[in-house]
């Protein structure tokens, strides 16, 4: 069987309860993610990694509030509370995450002028992070995505994974969503239509 990779998306303090952009139940997935890490050959982590004053922060746009959207040169962009500032406690992985096995950490969102939800491409959908090349060079053909948040970084990563030709699964029981204006439902639909396998539990 072709090599498989587990891609753990943004399991960081700021996306867990008590964090700057907390996702409901974000910390609940840690034991299951750790279990999947133990069972998967290749493990890659992503880390949302913004400089202070990042353009995705509402605080960088006078008069704008978190969760409003604005138009950026690369398209619409939701504005967020300041989060995952490079080197801050909030940007650290959740302390319970069994991260040591990871062979690669992809940091994203480190350019001030552009956000990056996907583990594969920045939000212009054109600037690669290098992850597809890494996985292909390693002979990986199947990827399973888990982490935070279902409707943003997990979903955009999964859509790009399919476009890059990977056999792509999202383990929904190991994800939690933000859910802005029905975004969980709409992104589940987009993923399903794109050919992402959505699983609520292990199929084996
Ligand atoms: C994320 C919003 C902003 C995510 C990251 O990990 O889903 N969402 N930055
Ligand atoms: Zn972010």
UniProtKB/TrEMBL annotation:
Keywords: Hydrolase, Metal-binding, Pyridine nucleotide biosynthesis. CDD domains: nicotinamidase (cd01011). InterPro entries: Isochorismatase-like_dom, Isochorismatase-like_sf, Isochorismatase_Nicotinamidase. Residues 5-200 form the Isochorismatase-like domain. Pathway: Cofactor biosynthesis; nicotinate biosynthesis; nicotinate from nicotinamide: step 1/1. One of its GO terms (biological process) is pyridine nucleotide biosynthetic process. Its EC number is 3.5.1.19. Pfam families: Isochorismatase. This is Nicotinamidase. It comes from Mesorhizobium waimense.
């Amino acid at each position: 069987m072709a090599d498989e990779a587990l891609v753990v998306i943004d399991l960081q303090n700021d996306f867990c309860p008590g964090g700057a952009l907390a996702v409901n139940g974000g910390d609940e997935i840690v034991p299951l993610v750790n279990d999947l890490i133990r069972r998967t050959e290749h493990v890659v982590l992503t880390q949302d990694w913004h400089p202070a004053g990042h353009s995705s922060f509402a605080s960088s746009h006078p008069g704008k509030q978190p969760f409003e959207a604005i138009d950026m040169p690369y398209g619409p962009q939701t504005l967020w509370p300041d989060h995952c500032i490079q080197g801050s406690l909030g940007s650290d992985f959740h302390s319970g995450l069994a991260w040591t096995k990871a062979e690669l950490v992809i940091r994203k969102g480190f350019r001030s002028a552009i956000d990056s939800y996907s583990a594969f491409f920045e939000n212009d959908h054109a600037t690669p992070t290098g992850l597809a090349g890494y996985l292909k060079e390693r002979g990986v053909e199947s990827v399973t995505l888990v982490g935070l948040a279902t409707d943003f970084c997990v979903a955009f990563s999964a859509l790009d994974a399919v476009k890059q030709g990977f056999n792509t699964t999202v383990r929904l029981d190991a994800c939690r969503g933000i859910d802005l204006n029905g975004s969980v439902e709409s992104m589940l639909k987009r993923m399903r239509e794109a050919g992402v396998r959505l699983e609520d539990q292990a199929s084996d």
